[in-house]
């Protein structure tokens, strides 16, 4: 089984797949690979072989091998030319078996994945404030944040501490803390400890609720540059979500330096392209002081996608897929 599993994983790595999907039906299991933003068929397994592979994956990821009736998630380190984190996620199905997805992430961060422009990098020179990255899963939020962290470390010589759940990629020269609820290592408790360790930049993996949001805002107002992610469909949605979480408009005006809402798209030449809209401090102030209306000069993600379609960079299908 190990040889068959190695074949699947190594094929996926060689073809730059981000995920391996095992999708059971009544008679067999389809294996598909997420390459860029497309799910591609790879192979078919019989149910008995799949069950043995699933048991092996659960064992390696520290999951409950005997349980088929609850969702589980774990990870382990896999070595193939480089080191990778494999996150194993299972879901119970009404067929009496489980589906499984393997997320493949390089253990060491690779800085050349996404090219960013100076308008985002320059904001890292601020001494305090909050930069938020938003967009759906797979939009490259964490990758872009890591690039900003590497830039701050290498070009600005800043001290950076991160809190993540979990740490998915290691960045040399950066202090990274992994959330562990059982050990009482939470976002809140870690943030309080970090503030005593003289950081210049703090990265918080994700703003999930009002408690984390308030801690992040407070840290950004106390002389630190803070980076984090939040799930929202657009920049104005980020502000509305934070207000819903109990953050005052005054705190948002004072704390926020920049909001980035992004998508990672595939062009007609099969290249990956980061497309994003940005809401600056002036845009944020205008939005909050004009009944949640955007300034006329604001260039939305849809505007940029239309431009790419007109220039022949993307087709109509891609345009429809990523329009808000």
UniProtKB/TrEMBL annotation:
<comment type="similarity">
    <text>Belongs to the GSP E family.</text>
</comment>
<protein>
    <submittedName>
        <fullName>Flp pilus assembly complex ATPase component TadA</fullName>
    </submittedName>
</protein>
<dbReference type="InterPro" id="IPR027417">
    <property type="entry name" value="P-loop_NTPase"/>
</dbReference>
<dbReference type="Pfam" id="PF00437">
    <property type="entry name" value="T2SSE"/>
</dbReference>
<feature type="domain" description="Bacterial type II secretion system protein E">
    <location>
        <begin position="195"/>
        <end position="209"/>
    </location>
</feature>
<dbReference type="InterPro" id="IPR001482">
    <property type="entry name" value="T2SS/T4SS_dom"/>
</dbReference>
<keyword id="KW-0067">ATP-binding</keyword>
<keyword id="KW-0547">Nucleotide-binding</keyword>
<dbReference type="InterPro" id="IPR047667">
    <property type="entry name" value="ATPase_ComGA"/>
</dbReference>
